[in-house]
Design brief:
Strand content: under 5%
Number of helices: 4
Oligomer: single chain
Structural class: mainly alpha
Helix content: 55-70%
Radius of gyration: 13 Å
Length: about 90
């Protein structure tokens, strides 16, 4: 777990990451479960990046790489990612 956390902390998800929305969601879930420094390293840049990407109509743009399904997917998974700390999904509640 420690090695995986260190890897995530060194390899932050960006718009250029392959499957960027999917990767951001699972990196955020992992960091939340790990907590501590890993969460503090992963969460702020992920949240800031997603908020900056949000479009005026409230949605998110399709993945820059084009390898993810499109705007509906991007919006859905962005909302799920941003709600991780709220533990809305019962499966992720502590």
């Amino acid at each position: 777990m420690a090695a995986a956390g260190q890897y995530l902390s060194r390899t932050l998800v960006t718009e250029d990451t392959r499957f960027a929305y999917y990767s951001a969601y699972y990196a955020t879930q992992t960091a939340f479960q790990a907590g501590g420094v890993i969460w503090q390293t992963i969460w702020p840049p992920t949240m800031d990046r997603l908020i900056a990407l949000q479009m005026l109509d409230g949605g998110w743009p399709a993945s820059k790489t084009g390898e993810e399904p499109g705007r509906v997917y991007a919006t859905s998974i962005s909302v799920l990612t941003l709600t991780v700390p709220y533990r809305l999904l019962p499966i992720y509640q502590r």
